[in-house]
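quick q for whoever's on today - can somebody do inverse folding on this one?? i tried earlier but teh output was garbage lol. tokens:
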């Protein structure tokens, strides 16, 4: 048995928000290659349809669900779609994020600030709440944070603040949900 065989996810069902491209697309492919059925969520239907088709073409199981992570009903419907289509929910990856504003904090409009918080922080809280209602015992929530959470980020301070809050949220959920559900965060640096 190879080392990767120890990490098989056969029979598991994973949801990946922001799964239509970038880090989320990579996560979705890795989960599928490990044997999980994958539910891909993103605002852009074409993006998640393409990734789902790519996974199915390689022999995996994938479902594309266009989702607005800033809408709690949309997140709840996403979690239910995993259960309805694959019979359960095992893994929830809060990956969707980003910011439309780049500049000093003093130049950010209230709308730009709120959009960043809704996309990067509130969606993690609401997504986790929706998932936990359906996660099987032994399930996992994985939050994609950022190295920006660890210090000053001139030109993107609002994003760094949101990701720092994601780290705090992760630690609190980890304590509150243990031992039934494991909650962790990953902090990638800049990804091309």
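ok took a stab at it. sequence:
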């Amino acid at each position: 048995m190879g080392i990767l065989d120890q990490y098989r996810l056969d029979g598991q069902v994973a949801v990946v928000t922001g799964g239509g491209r970038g880090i989320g697309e990579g996560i979705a492919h890795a989960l599928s290659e490990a044997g999980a059925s994958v539910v891909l969520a993103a605002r852009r239907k074409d993006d998640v349809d393409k990734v789902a088709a790519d996974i199915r073409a390689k022999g995996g199981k994938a479902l594309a669900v266009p989702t607005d992570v800033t809408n709690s009903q949309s997140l709840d419907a996403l979690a239910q779609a995993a259960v309805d289509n694959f019979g359960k929910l095992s893994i929830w990856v809060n990956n969707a994020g980003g910011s439309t504003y780049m500049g000093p904090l003093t130049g950010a409009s209230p709308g730009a600030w709120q959009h960043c918080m809704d996309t990067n922080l509130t969606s993690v809280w609401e997504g986790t709440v929706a998932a936990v209602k359906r996660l099987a015992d032994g399930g996992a929530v994985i939050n994609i944070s950022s190295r920006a959470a660890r210090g000053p980020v001139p030109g993107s301070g609002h994003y760094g603040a949101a990701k720092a809050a994601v780290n705090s949220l992760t630690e609190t959920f980890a304590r509150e949900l243990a031992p039934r559900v494991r909650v962790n965060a990953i902090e990638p640096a800049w990804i091309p």
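fwiw The first helix runs from residue 22 to 33. also The two ends are 34 Å apart (CA to CA). so keep that in mind when u check it
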